[in-house]
Amino acid sequence: MAISRVKIAAAALTAASLAAAAIAQNSKNPESLLPPGFGEPVAQPGGAAPSGAPAAVPTGTVQQLPSNVADNALLPAPEPSATPTPDAATLAQYEMPPFARRSLDFVGPTGASEGGLAPDAWGSADGRFLETLMRRLSAPLPSRWLSIALRRALVSQVNTPRGLNGADFAAERAWLLLRMGESVSARALAQSVDIGNVTPKLRDVWMQTALATADPAALCPLTDAALRDDSEPGWVLAQAMCAALVGTPGEAQPLIAEARRARVASGVDLQLAQKVIGAGADSRQAITIEWTPVVQLNAWRFGLATATGIAVPDSLYQTVGPQVTGWRALAPAIPLADRIEPAERAAAMGVISNLALVDFYGALDAMEDAPAVLSATASDLRSAYAGADVATRIGALRQLWQAGTAPQAKYARLILTARAAGRVRPGDGKDEADRLIAAMLSAGMDRTAMRWRDTAPAGSDGWALLALADPDATGRLGYSQVSGYAAARKRQLFFAGLAGLGRLAPNDIERGAQELDVRIGTENAWTRALDRATRERQPATVLLLAAAGMQTGDWRGVPPDMLYRIITALRFVGLGGDARMIAVEALTRT
């Protein structure tokens, strides 16, 4: 299996090469032991960064539809202007003066000072090659921590690679973010390009980001330009929706009637557009949505239904990819109880952080009409943080961990309980040391976890996780310590992680590669591209190539030699914190 996965990655890399050639806890408050979320505002989604890694990318909130209330009666009557009305060119300068215009040579919503990568993160990599890799990348990724790191690279304010238009490169990055489940980050990236510079490619992706974030109003700035170029049905209906959203329903009704006569759309797609029009100011239109004939959910149906408070049937969510899980988790218009299960899965994907996930349950805990099962989980989480004694807190943690049965659900519960686990003292939780350490590290709490260094027995899972996660490690382990650890698959991954992090001597690396059959010396198109990006210190390119190597549904399909290559490359380009967390995750989820 390992060899075939390497061949798949190499083949994908070769195809990409040919295509390119052709063209983020307040401990000072003694009054409460509860985590953020129980009685506090909801944190922004994103991944917590381990020590030594840049902070997670901040994301925005979904824009709400305009208010239905428009009171112009108190405004003074307009008077004639004392000066001539300026021409269009002059008005354009007032709308976007030169100093406020953003260059297409430097695009992205997150600067280096805000947690993004450096402007030269893509280095001198060929733009067509990068775009082809992005387009062919299968997402979501099996690794939560690699997904978090790749998101940071994609939203960073970076120089546009050679051979590309900055707006088109932003479109390709946003499209990949959408497939990763990162709808809010994708919208922020698309909107980091000035309206006047939006290309047809970015316009298409812009619509997808607006729908994925349930924000039809985001379509309005581009509607007129889109209709000048083509008559794509989405933009035809957007014109009618936007007329209603800006308070002119008298214009919206003829437009929607014309669209119906021209059969631009029908059925639920037309009904949803009419529902958005009904949400506009002064609209008296009432529309009933009929889901019975619908057999497939798409971005249009998800976005407009969510924006207007229409519940999408659970059966339709079974017809879409896992990226929609992230969209659901990030959509505030969806009722909280309906977002909990997607939020847990999104946390395992890297879309939702530990703090945001705890916030979900904290808000749920305050609800009077929450479903019994979810209320019980929120109660267990409260006990895990603020139980009367150690036995109560650890008992609540066990209850939460046992609730997850599928691999992704088990990992999500580790993320949920990370900071509660961090409150347990090493002397009090010896029997659960492995899971307590794994929970802390799932949220990047490496220094907190290192308190267990003298408690976790040598050869245990907790001991192995700490050996990989140690942010201050200076010594090296001996091969005898690796060879006596766990079963074969875990032993291989442990070896690959230690070797990639430089925590084994060269002769032990050679010995382990032979005895454990980890072919770290394999060369192919993927390894050569990764080595080249590493030598040229291109962290963003390294992250994209690392993701291209992980073209598999879960960690069972990631070969140890590929893990070694990825961790080594990340460490050499300054992403050591991410490398350590990926190595830890490999053991935790195997």
Description:
By secondary structure, this protein is mainly alpha-helical. It folds into 3 domains: 1-17 and 102-162 and 459-590, no CATH class; 183-334, no CATH class; 354-442. It is 54% helix and 1% strand. It is built from 30 helices and 2 strands. The chain has helices spanning 2-22, 88-95, 127-136, 144-155, 166-179, 183-190, 200-212, 220-229, 233-245, 249-261, 267-278, 299-307, 314-317, 323-329, 336-349, 354-365, 372-386, 390-402, 407-416, 418-421, 433-442, 446-449, 461-469, 479-483, 488-500, 506-515, 525-535, 539-549, 560-572, 576-588; strands at 106-107, 158-159. The chain has a two-stranded antiparallel sheet with strand order 1-2. Helix 27 (525-535) runs parallel beside helix 29. It is globular, with a radius of gyration of 26 Å. It starts with a helix and ends with a helix.
Q: What characteristics describe this protein?
A:
54% helix, single chain, 2 strands, 3 domains, 30 helices, 590 residues, 1% strand, two-stranded antiparallel ribbon, mainly alpha
